[in-house]
DNA topoisomerase I
Amino acid sequence: EKKKIKLSSKDREKEPNGKHKPSSKVKQSDSPSGVSSSAVKCEAGDGDMHEDVKADPSERAQHDGHEKSGSLEINNNIEKNNNKQKTRSKSSKERHNRKEKSEQTADVKPVDGDSNQADEGQGCESEATRKQETDEPQAAAPVKIKKKKVKDEKSPDDKNQPSGKKRKKQSPEHDKAEKSKNIERDEDDKKKKKAKKEDKKDQESDKWKWWEEGKLSDTQKWSSLEHKGPYFAPEYEPLPDNVCFCYDGQPVKLSPATEEIASFYAKMLDHEYTTKEVFQNNFFSDWKEEMTPKESELIQTLSKCDFSQIHKYFVEKSEERKNMTKEEKQVLKDEASRLTEEYGYCLLDGHREKIGNFKLEPPGLFRGRGEHPKMGKLKKRIQPEDVAINCSEDSKIPEPPAGHRWKRVQHDNTVTWLASWLENIHGRPKYIMLNPSSKLKGEKDWQKYETARRLKMRVNSIRKQYRRDWKSREMKIRQRGVAIYFIDKLALRAGNEKDDESADTVGCCSLRVEHISLHRRLDGQEYVVEFDFLGKDSIRYYNKVPVEKQVFKNLKLFIKYKDPEDDLFDRITTINLNKTLNESMSGLTAKVFRTYNASTTLQDQLNKLTTEDMTVEEKILSYNRANRAVAILCNHQRAAPKTFEKSMQLLQEKIQKKKEQIEEAKKELKEAKKAHKDAPSDKSKK
């Protein structure tokens, strides 16, 4: 800037009339008023030394008009100075802003010009100087003063002035602000997620390590127990008036109780259960008992009943639930969380423990597994008067629903259940128990696995004993030896005696002659036994197993002179077998054998399938394969669902698509190898 001022001063001194010489002298020495043009320049430009101070074209025109001498040299010098200033500016954007602000301050130029004329006028007697005093200062001076004014004009009022250009200037800032808000929002979400994780970690760290504490006793299960009781199923909501039940083609208005049971059947119309005669007969029999006398007199046969309108109504309701918005689903989710928080936890010995099944079963129709003789019967609504509550004496007793009372309240710390009732189908008690991760369940599992550990130390001697029993002269001992062999080798359940009202499921001790087939040679193996029966939950057990020669001989002896429906082991019972096992080792039952063999199988499979250098994904795959081997051993399987065939078809299509992709990739690889061989390079190698 100093070089710029000196250059303009030298240009003025070169003029023949010397009218600018006083100006150069004032620059070099302090003026009487103490304010020189250089001082003004410095005051205006100290903060923005490299900013553009280019004069307006209109002002330049006025200046050219004032200079009657028409010195071309001065104009050229001014243009040169302006060009130098332009190259020293920060950016084109800043030049644009400074020019805009210069235009906004144009209305106050005369005042600034007058104030500068007093400084510039000393020692100047030429006509050009007098014209400058009346009109406009020199080209360089007003630029400097305007620059100062621009700085002064940066006020709050200036910011509030509406301007299209200013709005454009603010829009990036607005976008930046929005972006920062979004970043803050994302950071808040991350913080919340992090807080949830930390809370989860805290909960895990605060988890009750009951196994590190001493056991109370073999009989006492807890010292204190407090809970809210069970959650009852919501009351029945009657059907709309436009949905009706029809009998023999005529609409019939049913009573609420009768209508509710009819809706149970209507919901299952598209299920195979409603096509079974046993299901239909049991349903109609129980439904008739709940009808009013008038309804019972009218409705005589199930074949004339039309449930189609009710079925259609519930199908539409189901579709509505599926098509709920995210917000509506969230409302239901929040309500479920609230119920879990209120009813799903209890205080056990001062610790918060999760309850397994705090919701009581809603009324409906019993299905059962397999061909159950009681399928279709009515599961009645459970009322508080049917429920017994178990809690500690010093705890707050759960409050029953309004207008009801509990069947009884007891304080028995030798049992682990919180509530109990009798279900009406079999007349057996049902319970509300704690979650499998709780102390009471954990202690039971712990004890089971510790017994299995002890069996590991004694299993060889037990195996030697039942092998000796195969050759016993007493048939009872022979049968017991073969049965224990099956339980040990095949992980069969012991089996219990069944009544006529239960499904026809069997275990080892309840096997019948019809459940096995003996093959001297089969599929290249000798002494093969073919098993085919329904086990627990009516799950089919089918297996072909090669056995030892003595076992095969004994089985032939056991089935001799027997009919297919006769018991295979007719001399022993489950009680007798478990008593013998308990004599061999304290606490040993047929169930412990299943636990031991399942654990041993899992460990053996893991040893075979895993190595230390495996990835996590490979280890998970190996574990799943080992777990499947255990499932096969224990016959842990489920019945095929309705969509099984469709799901398998989709999987086969995916597999086929993958195979095609692999074949395509192999072709591409072959072509790439060929191209690399013809013209090798790093790119072709990759």
Q: What stands out?
A: The two ends are 60 Å apart (CA to CA).
